[in-house]
Design goal:
Radius of gyration: 16 Å
Helix content: 55-70%
Strand content: under 5%
Number of helices: 6
Distance between the termini: 53 Å
Number of strands: 0
Order of helices and strands: HHHHHH
Largest sheet: none
């Protein structure tokens, strides 16, 4: 064990441009942009959205439960997203613990589950 250096396992978004491309409806819900409000399809929205620093996968997964609980979101969307928000919150707690324990295998499994949950939430929003 090093005396001075601290070993750390972390997770981060490789390319934040992939976040609005992959989950455009969730991205727009969590980080709204009034200039994009009239866009009528997820594909058009993904082309128009520009990522910003600190808006990666983990940030999206952390912000979504807060949006569902405390944000300005219509009741239909809140109802649809609530189960996903609960799952994302639970996955985050487990992921933080796995990273803290340097358990890479569990962290990788949890990252996959987190992305899958975002995929399902995006699909649920598109279904509205």
């Amino acid at each position: 064990m090093p005396r001075i250096l601290f070993l750390r396992v972390s997770a981060c978004t490789y390319d934040e441009k992939d976040v609005p491309r992959t989950w455009p409806m969730l991205f727009a819900a969590v980080w709204p942009d009034e200039d994009l409000a009239d866009i009528d399809s997820a594909r058009k929205l993904a082309r128009k959205l520009a990522p910003a620093r600190e808006k990666g996968v983990l940030e999206l997964a952390r912000a979504l439960p807060e949006l569902v609980r405390f944000g300005e979101l219509d009741d239909r969307k809140k109802t649809v997203l609530r189960p996903f928000a609960d799952i994302l919150e639970s996955l985050h707690v487990k992921l933080d613990a796995a990273l803290g324990d340097r358990d890479v295998k569990t962290a990788e499994t949890l990252c996959t589950a987190l992305e899958d949950t975002l995929d399902e939430a995006e699909a649920a929003l598109r279904g509205l």
